[in-house]
Amino acid sequence: MPLPSFQEQFAALIAAPSVSCTQPNWDQSNAPVIELLAAWLGDLGFACETQQIAPGKFNLLASYGSGPGGLVLAGHSDTVPFDAALWQTDPLKLTEVGDRWVGLGSCDMKGFFALAIEAVRPLLDQPFKQPLLILATCDEESSMAGARALAEAGRPLGRAAVIGEPTGLKPIRLHKGVMMERIDILGQSGHSSDPALGRSALEAMQDVMGELRGLRAQWQREFNNPQFGVPQPTLNLGCIHGGDNPNRICGQCALEFDLRPLPGMDPEQLREAIRGKLQPLALKHQVRIDYGPLFPAVPPFEQSADAELVRLAERLTGHSAQAVAFGTEAPYLQQLGCETLVLGPGDIDCAHQPGEHLELARIEPTVALLRQLIQHYCLTRSEDVQRR
Q1: Which residues are catalytically annotated?
Q2: pTM for this structure?
Q3: C-alpha atoms less than 13 angstroms from C-alpha of 184 in its C-beta half-sphere
Q4: Cα 229 off chain centre by
């Protein structure tokens, strides 16, 4: 059976549901996407290895050629949840609307795999002197479990890695980290007519929020990176729940907050600073305070400006490498020894939105760019590159 065309592959990826979500009623297996990619890449001569990360959740590592070095083209196989009623087209059907392809995952970022396959197809009759690895991960939109598992396994992947997240075809070499945390306070409820009958979790939480705001101000004085649109770390007090009635002393209160550290800030050190502020408050208010992450932190990411991959991408795209506020799997690939860059054709402004789309004008430049990267890293000997 002949390999499907580029557009057919793109459409098939959009049609394969692969939502990942922390809410079980939304969460789906990514197996349909992984099976499609493994079949297509296997037919092209790639050696395909599927790794089960959790029940129904898989990574795919497809390699062509062998040896050290080479290039990794990486992306996540999952999408965010969607509300079909807010879409003007079927989110699971690739639809051409004007000058764009519309569909869930067209931009963020299942469509990237079809672009990578299209880029490599005409090169497969040439000898690969270094390998090409196409990596598809699971659960990036929720827990990043796929990328975490790769990093924990410690298996080297390649000399350079490009993650095709939506960047408008501009290279990204820095992004902030993502920490989502929760603080629970257990006090003692009682009749509001006598404060001595209870210990207010809500009043204790007011002091907690004051300490968090103080830490935020301190960190924003100490850390600044002008390459980011928001050059300081941010801490957002996102949601709070506590108490049940005006005439009862509040016995329980919970706060969830979001912290975005800059490169150079260690999430564990930030957590230690927060814990150091909470312990005295627990004693002061005679309450129990529990603190922990909602999920493991995504570390901040920075690839050096003089890295070969950064210089090459800047030359090929005509854009200087930039910074973004959103998080990606880049730090995990970097932990495996890859020079890493985030670079893809979509626009982040339409990601996670009804009507997610990819501009048709981006397709040809993306294929050409990926083909040049493959030629540089896989069809040229590493010593030849070093002599240039």
Answers
A1: 78, 140
A2: 0.91
A3: 5
A4: 19
137 vs 59: CA distance, rounded Å: 5
Architecture of 177-291 per CATH?
A: 2-Layer Sandwich (3.30)
Query: In the beta sheet, which residues pair with residue 252?
Result: 186
Residue 241 CB partners (closer than 8 Å, separation 6+): 253, 254
Query: Which ranges of 286-350 would DSSP assign to H, the alpha helix?
Result: 308-317, 330-335
Residue 308: helix, strand or coil by DSSP? Answer: helix
Count how many Cα atoms sit within 13 Å of the Cα of residue 171 in the half-sphere of its side chain: 28
Residue range(s) occupied by CATH 3.30.70.360 in the chain:
177-291
Question: Which amino acid, residue 259?
Answer: L
Q: For residue 20, what are the CA distances in angstroms to 79, 113, 326, 332?
A: 6, 18, 18, 19
Tens of pLDDT, residues 272-322: 999 999 999 999 999 999 999 998 999 999 999 999 999 999 999 999 999
Predicted confidence (pLDDT) per residue in 49-90, tens digit: 999 999 999 999 999 998 889 999 999 999 999 999 999 999
The two three-digit tokens of residue 354, written as one number: 């009804």
- Measured between alpha carbons, how far is 104 from 120 in angstroms, rounded to an integer? 24
* C-alpha angle 299-300-302 in degrees, rounded to nearest 5: 130
**What is the DSSP track for 180-211?**
EEEEEEE-B-EETT-GGG-B-HHHHHHHHHHH
All CATH 3.40.630.10 domain ranges in the chain, comma separated: 4-173+299-384
CB-based contacts of 285: which residues, under 8 Å, 6+ apart?
Answer: 187, 199, 200, 203, 204, 207
Decide the pairing of beta strands 160-163 and 288-293: unpaired
- Backbone φ and ψ of 18, nearest 5°: -155, 45
**Domain 4-173+299-384 CATH (choose: 2.60.120.200, 3.30.1490.20, 3.20.20.450, 3.40.630.10):** 3.40.630.10
